[in-house]
């Protein structure tokens, strides 16, 4: 990258950061509330992003996106993620679905849906977890897809904690096309238009008071044969590919929110005056600031290392597990420290801290709980040591 390229990219990052700060931050409460007002406002923000040349920066240029490679997009993802609503407002929220459909969708699916997904005209969601089958155990999936005589599929089952299902046009559903719950084989992904007869949104599932998660039902939904994503039985491989990128993107966005909480903490400490002077002079407040900064500075390299490996197409299971867990913990920790420095004001509606803390707490469960990543990373590290030649401990 030339000096000119670096300068241009730094300017682009500043523009993204300014858009999120100036256009998205002020309307977060309306967007959090959901409903038609939130939908209308979201569309206005998207139109502003298009006019500003900031729309869908990491999505394919030939489909109307910015065409940025993942390696370059990483710092922009952190800037966008300073608000939960930043990626949707700037058109990058569909990156996972667009990537999955571009790589594994049929020719008809790619031509019929990809342009709309990238342009923002079609909204997507991903349905994996079931009420009686935790997301950490996809082999227990009970939702079934049975072959129809004409070559299509008939999908029956329920999913829950499906992000954005309330206004989605397309849902990618993990379903069992053969075998029984408990089998790791026989799982496939199908792309289902939500206008199909038999598809229903059963209820919204607020998470610690926040909207955006839903329980949905497939009551004998007919799906065309060419709406299979990948081959039959290939779901877990595609899901693993998707999860590595998805978890890393979330970690980058959580970093952006942790940085936001840290900035609020610093501003409060510097500006708040007490009878004994500013909060910044108190050692316990200084300790909160130090610990928050330490968490940010030690987590950021982990997350960027994971993104570099994912962008390069290399195995990154260990790095992604470390990054996801560290970023979730950092967001919760930094937001908690900022709330403590704000005092009662940090619990109320006048700052974004309650929402930031809520995101941090849910982050430790969504996309795999901490415990899953701890065990998975430990097993991989120990397995690699068992299969590698022993290291010499003799002095050189």
Write up this protein:
- Keywords: FAD, Flavoprotein, Oxidoreductase.
- It contains 12 helices and 10 strands.
- With 396 residues, the protein is of the alpha+beta class.
- It folds into 3 domains: 3-93, Orthogonal Bundle (Butyryl-Coa Dehydrogenase, subunit A, domain 1); 124-232, Beta Barrel (Butyryl-CoA Dehydrogenase, subunit A, domain 2), CATH 2.40.110.10; 237-387, Up-down Bundle (Butyryl-CoA Dehydrogenase, subunit A, domain 3), CATH 1.20.140.10.
- The strands form 3 sheets. Strands 1-4-5-8 form a 4-stranded mixed beta sheet. The protein has a 4-stranded antiparallel beta sheet with strand order 2-3-7-6, with no helix packed on it.
- Strand 6 (199-204) and strand 7 (213-223) form a beta hairpin.
- Helix 1 (3-24) runs parallel beside helix 4 (70-80), helix 8 (235-271) runs antiparallel to helix 11 (353-363) and helix 10 (317-342) runs antiparallel to helix 11.
- The two termini are 40 Å apart.
Rounded to the nearest angstrom, the distance between the terminal CA atoms is: 40 Å
What structural category do the secondary elements indicate? alpha+beta
Shape summary:
globular
Please trace the helix and strand order, writing H or E for each element: HHHHHHHEEEEEEEEHEEHHHH
Q: What does the average pLDDT come to?
A: 93
């Amino acid at each position: 990258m030339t000096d000119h390229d670096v300068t241009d990219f730094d300017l682009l990052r500043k523009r993204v950061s300014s858009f999120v700060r100036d256009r998205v931050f002020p309307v977060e409460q309306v967007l959090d509330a959901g409903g038609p007002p939130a939908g209308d406002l979201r569309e206005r923000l998207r139109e502003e992003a298009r006019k500003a040349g900031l729309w869908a920066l990491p999505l394919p240029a030939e489909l109307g996106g910015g065409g940025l490679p993942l390696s370059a997009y990483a710092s922009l993802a952190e800037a966008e993620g300073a608000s939960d609503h930043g990626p949707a407002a700037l058109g990058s929220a569909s990156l996972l679905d667009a990537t999955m459909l571009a790589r594994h969708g049929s020719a008809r699916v790619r031509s019929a849906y990809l342009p709309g997904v990238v342009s923002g005209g079609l909204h997507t969601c991903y349905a994996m977890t079931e009420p009686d089958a935790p997301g950490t155990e996809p082999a227990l999936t009970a939702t079934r897809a049975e072959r129809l005589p004409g070559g299509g599929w008939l999908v029956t089952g329920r999913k829950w904690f499906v992000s954005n299902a309330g206004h989605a046009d397309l849902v990618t559903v993990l379903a069992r096309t053969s075998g029984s719950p408990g089998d790791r084989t026989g799982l496939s992904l199908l792309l289902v238009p939500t206008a199909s007869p038999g598809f229903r949104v059963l209820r919204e599932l607020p998470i610690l008071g926040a909207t955006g998660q839903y329980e949905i039902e497939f009551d004998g939904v007919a799906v065309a044969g060419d709406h299979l994503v990948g081959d039959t039985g290939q779901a877990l491989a595609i899901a693993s590919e998707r999860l590595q990128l998805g978890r890393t993107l979330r970690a980058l966005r959580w970093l952006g929110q942790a940085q936001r909480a840290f900035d609020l903490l610093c501003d409060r400490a510097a500006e708040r005056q007490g009878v004994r002077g500013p909060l910044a002079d108190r050692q316990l407040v200084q300790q909160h600031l130090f610990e928050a900064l330490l968490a940010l500075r030690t987590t950021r390299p982990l997350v960027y290392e994971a993104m570099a490996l994912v962008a390069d197409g290399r195995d990154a299971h260990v790095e992604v597990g470390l990054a996801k867990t560290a970023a979730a913990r950092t967001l919760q920790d930094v937001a908690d420290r900022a709330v403590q420095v704000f005092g009662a004001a940090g619990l109320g509606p006048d700052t974004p801290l309650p929402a930031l803390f809520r995101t941090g707490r849910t982050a430790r469960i969504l996309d795999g709980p901490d415990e899953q990543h701890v065990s998975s990373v430990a097993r991989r590290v120990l397995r690699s040591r068992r299969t590698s030649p022993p290291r010499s401990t003799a002095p050189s």
